[in-house]
Design goal:
With 279 residues, the protein is α/β, with parallel strands linked by helices. It has twelve helices and nine strands. It has an eight-stranded mixed beta barrel. The longest helix is centred in the first third of the chain and has 31 residues. The N and C termini lie far apart (75 Å). Bound molecules: ligand C2E and calcium ion (CA) (3 copies). One calcium ion binds next to loops. It comes from Anaerocolumna jejuensis DSM 15929. This is Diguanylate cyclase (GGDEF) domain-containing protein. It is found in: Cell membrane.
């Protein structure tokens, strides 16, 4: 009947409205997240298979709000990008990550690389390089201990500008990593034309590396291709020992995933690195 149709429409409307409400709530949370100290960083260690040690860690953003609880980047990063708040939040995490790695260097861990995700919104700002330079100066972190992670879609949406910006950053000694490799559009084009030091193979390839012959061959092909271009390869989302073994056999350089470590709060990572004086 007509009534049922109307009810359905109303229901649909309510769902949309709820989503809009949540989005505007999150936008408000983002606006005050830094001032209210609701934003924080977790660090996920990266393990170098050949050197058999941790060689770096990725900074990942988290937000905890009294009303909304724990928020994850998959939900709030797109909203931060749309509202423009990513510029401020992105600068905040960069400074935080550089400060933390400087602290590690001062404690004797001088060869660790901290990786920070960069949004296309940040990369397309004219003063992005200046911001990075200022952060390195303020924190005292050597440029070679900082890596910026960009995705193929970042490179697409910031267009020709991106290549120039990334080249300047590389000249400063900062490392550039191509994130989520294999999920974008014209991967091979970016490999040859962009200034890149590291390639992060997306976890979708790692997922089926043991069960799907095609994925295994793609993974092995990506590793060989990257090595032929003098790039280091990080495999993302490694969860099982069998995956690690296949990656090792294929000469993957570094792994990042739950098998080695989940993302950790800074003090937990510090505790893991530092021997307990009471032991
Ligand atoms: P990403 O850059 O690909 O980061 C890796 C994601 O995989 C992280 O999710 C991490 O927690 C998760 N992960 C790590 N190991 C495993 C594993 O073994 N299995 C599985 N299933 N997942 C694993 P997270 O922290 O939720 O971040 C999601 C995405 O949000 C990131 O993907 C990145 O694109 C974005 N993001 C996070 N922090 C920032 C930030 O500060 N700025 C920007 N622009 N984006 C960020
Ligand atoms: Ca990343
Ligand atoms: Ca990734
Ligand atoms: Ca990503």
């Amino acid at each position: 009947s007509k009534d049922t149709g109307k009810n359905k429409y109303t229901l649909f409307d309510v769902t949309m409205e709820e989503e809009l409400n949540r989005n505007s709530l999150i936008t408000e949370v983002l606006r005050h997240a830094i001032a209210n100290e609701e934003v924080y960083v977790v660090y996920q260690p990266q393990y170098n298979i050949r050197k058999e040690k941790m060689t770096g860690f990725e900074a990942l953003m988290r937000i905890r709000n009294p009303k909304l609880g724990e928020l994850y980047p998959q939900e709030f990063i797109p909203i931060a990008e749309e509202s423009g708040m990513i510029t401020e939040l992105g600068e905040w995490i960069l400074r935080e990550a550089c400060l933390f790695n400087k602290k590690l260097i001062d404690s004797g861990f001088d060869s660790l690389t901290v990786s920070v995700n960069i949004s296309s919104v940040q990369l397309s700002k004219a003063n992005f390089i200046e911001i990075i330079q200022n952060i390195l100066e303020e924190t005292g972190l050597p440029a070679g201990n900082l890596e910026l992670e960009v995705t193929e879609s970042t490179l697409v949406s910031s267009l020709s500008n991106a290549s120039v910006q990334l080249s300047s950053l590389q000249e400063l000694g900062i490392l550039i990593s191509l994130d989520d490799f294999g999920t974008g559009y014209s991967s091979l084009n970016y490999l040859t034309n962009m200034p890149i030091d590291t390639l992060k193979m997306d976890k979708s390839f790692v997922n089926n590396i043991c069960s799907n012959e095609k994925d295994a061959r793609i993974a092995s092909g990506i590793i060989n291709l990257a090595h032929s271009m003098k790039l280091e390869v990080i495999a993302e989302g490694v969860e099982r020992i069998e995956q690690l073994e296949v990656l090792r056999k294929n000469r993957c350089d570094i792994i990042q995933g739950y098998i080695y470590s989940k993302p950790l709060l800074p003090h937990i990572l510090l505790e893991t690195l530092m021997p307990d004086p009471a032991d």
